[in-house]
Design a protein that fits this description.
Helix content of chain A: 40-55%
Oligomer: homodimer
Largest interface: A-B, 34 and 35 residues
Number of strands of chain A: 11
Number of domains of chain A: 2
Strand order of the largest sheet of chain A: 1-2-9-6-5-3-4
Radius of gyration of chain A: 19 Å
CATH topology of the largest domain in chain A: Rossmann fold
């Protein structure tokens, strides 16, 4: 088991990574007042295991899927927390993918101004990305993650056991964030390149996940609330990714991030942020998980959603985090019209 | 103008106290993207002044009154923030009493995981209590402040100008928290005793407010999130006060705090926490603002609400913060039945 410590301004957080992490979570909550939030998919697969590991916990099961990451589901969780008469020192355990982590995390942040929180991410994506760092949120009125809080879990338990039941598409989705990290972090990049033929090996995916978490922990420690700018690097590919996700919504977050990175590598190249060779290298990494970039015909709507992005600080401008060189990134604000021009490149995909 | 600095873990906060503070708020937001949240009462009285001080700001006016401190009003504010396309670096200015401060503060905390926030409290209660320290919340399903966040305003502007339009009942309400502070803080206690005949003098009320804010700032600095226990002292009288507020809801928060302190002084005395003389002294301070304690016949319901209190950490126990001696307080957990017995004392008021 690997232990990664995060020392943030608000509170310390410890990530435990490895086989046995789920049992460690059970031990951590033994004898405590605990409330497990999970979704219908995870519950179907792990109902007995949950009962075994958290014998005394109340379990709140919400419908699975990104489209349920909204105000209604948030208040359903809060209602069940109230019904269970949770107290401020009770534990909320978010057991599921990123949607569960974000919503249960926000419920834990709001309930009595904050109950104790642990994250038990069950997808590759949630392990490498959303469970670490304390970002919680729901989507609202068509804007992704527009209502939320920074709220650190006191423990994160990342168990590779859950990878066995992930559909291939979920793995591809997680690889989106892994590949993003590989572009930002040379250590993860080298690991990925060395093992690029082993991307179906669950043990190797776990190694990649640990490397991504170590990198993310360093970034979050340095800039918990995205105030100094450093944490923004994690948004590489995300401006376009989020916009397309809002526009279409049929693929997964990680896949949209991959598509976003693909498009933004061209922007980086044409805006002179990186060399053509480096942009091609980024696209070759994207292709490891997403060899075929689909077509997005509606640039106008894509732009509309990109303009709603939280990262934009000036109106009429779209903020991007672009690849620059090995382990380097750059921020760039583009006028809306110019960005729309780049979006048109997606009209034909890479077919 | 007095300046009181708060250095908390999450972010620094500065309180400006004195005539001219409202204009200073206007200067602070000049040229910024600003969104003012206020209520229908404040807007009726200060509409022109608001337009003058914040000429470029959007103004969101919500219905006045404690019963509107709920999820619906919170989402109405968030909807208007979205409609106004506020960004993460936009400013939310909460201009009103404690209800507005709590709701606009929570909206600012949630929107894009946190926009910039300033508080401009317009009541004595909000100036001495809720605007300083970063507690934000709404009531939900009959439980006071059960959904909220700790979110520090970057500036608080306390202008005594607003006292001129406060009804006497609002002043009495603010005196509830002033008297609570006087019990906890010898400096405020001495100031209050020396001027107890000048409680209708608005200048003296402003002096008292500054003294209370200085005390609260020290407490919040030492324990921003109520984790070390110190900040709990501010809940003196509040367990009973909140329970009665939920039970009846016709008086104001400060009046319920006074009634709570009155009852809890007897509990402190009978549980051996303070001497009978000190308990009588606390009641004499309460009597400065609330000479007649009304009758609350329904102890059973009062207990039910007290058991919902966030401060309770064990089920079946009611947590109280009781006066102990000059500048000292003590925490006590009472079994529910025992606390119910004390509540019965309120059946006849102090008539």
């Amino acid at each position: 088991m690997q232990t990664i410590e995060l020392h943030t301004q608000s509170r310390p957080s410890t990530v435990l990574c490895g086989a046995g992490a789920l049992d460690a979570a059970g031990e951590y909550l033994a004898g405590k007042d605990a409330f497990v939030v999970t979704d219908s998919n995870v519950y179907r697969l792990y109902k007995e295991r949950i009962a075994e590991v958290f014998p005394a916990a109340r379990v709140c099961v919400v419908p699975a899927g990104e489209r349920h990451k909204n105000k209604n589901t948030l208040f359903r969780i809060l209602d069940e927390m109230l019904d269970a008469r949770l107290r401020r020192n009770s534990f909320v355990a978010a057991l599921g993918g990123g949607v569960i982590g974000d919503m249960a995390g926000l419920a834990a942040a709001l309930y009595m101004r904050g109950t104790r929180l642990i994250q038990i991410p069950t997808t590759l994506l949630a392990q490498v990305d959303s469970s670490v760092g304390g970002k919680t949120a729901v989507d609202y009125r068509g804007v992704k993650n527009v209502l939320g809080a920074f709220y650190q879990p006191e423990r994160v338990f990342c168990d590779p056991l859950f990878f066995r039941t992930l559909p291939p598409r979920e793995i591809r989705c997680g690889l989106g964030e892994v590949i993003k990290t590989a572009v930002l972090d040379p250590a993860t990049g080298d690991l990925l390149e060395a093992g690029k033929d082993r991307l179906r090996d669950l043990g190797f995916l776990h190694e990649l996940a640990c490397s991504c978490i170590r990198f993310k922990a360093k970034v979050v420690e340095a800039d918990e609330r995205e105030t100094t700018g450093l944490r923004k690097c994690l948004n590489l590919g995300h401006t376009t990714g989020h916009a397309l996700e809002l526009l279409c919504g049929r693929r997964s977050h990680g896949e949209y991030v991959l598509i976003g990175m693909w498009l933004e590598s061209f922007i980086a190249e044409e805006e002179g942020v990186c060399t053509p060779a480096y942009a091609a290298h980024v696209r070759s990494l994207v292709a490891l998980a997403e060899p075929r970039i689909p077509a997005f015909p509606n640039a106008e709507e894509g732009l509309r959603f990109a303009l709603l992005d939280k990262k934009n600080t000036e109106s009429g401008q779209v903020s991007l985090v672009l690849p620059k060189a090995r382990g380097e990134y750059a921020e760039l604000s583009l006028p809306a019209e110019r960005y729309r021009g780049y979006l048109c490149r997606l009209q034909g995909g890479n077919a």
